């Protein structure tokens, strides 16, 4: 890390397999840094309170609410955002199951679903429900999302 001035530092982040440089303050959230400094706007800004999951990203493969994570704490750690899952079968599966309406919550759900499929591909209904509770959707009523997540896990288990 190189001191830029008393309030800001120039640091590098490892996002979606690429290295990005950004000027940050120690209090900047990861969500702010991704969206404003790096132009990665897929993680959505909503409650900024840890309640909705629209800002979900993976840090070291673990789902995190980027609105509650300090950017400075993620320096040197692999970060994956929805942009890193562009074109993944999970996106198609969500579309096929009508699990998207306005789409605002969708990046968070897809990132979280990706983590579930990687870590617990044989998750049962209760585990799926518990895992996805960190994300809120105000449109779909959740049934379509649950069906999409189950389909993603089935595909994972058959591959
Ligand atoms: S914006 Fe981060 S949890 Fe809602
Ligand atoms: S699709 Fe609109 S909030 Fe989930």
From TrEMBL:
One Pfam entry name: Fer2_2
UniProt keywords, alphabetically: 2Fe-2S, Iron, Iron-sulfur, Metal-binding, Oxidoreductase
InterPro entries in alphabetical order: 2Fe-2S-bd (IPR002888), 2Fe-2S-bd_dom_sf (IPR036884), 2Fe-2S_ferredoxin-like_sf (IPR036010), 2Fe-2S_ferredoxin-type (IPR001041), 2Fe2S_fd_BS (IPR006058), Beta-grasp_dom_sf (IPR012675), Diverse_Oxidoreductases (IPR051452)
Domain named 2Fe-2S ferredoxin-type: residues: 9-85
Residue intervals passing through the bilayer: none
Single Gene Ontology MF annotation: metal ion binding
PANTHER family assigned: OXIDOREDUCTASE WITH IRON-SULFUR SUBUNIT, XANTHINE DEHYDROGENASE SUBUNIT E-RELATED
Protein name: (2Fe-2S)-binding protein
Organism for this UniProt entry: Ammoniphilus oxalaticus
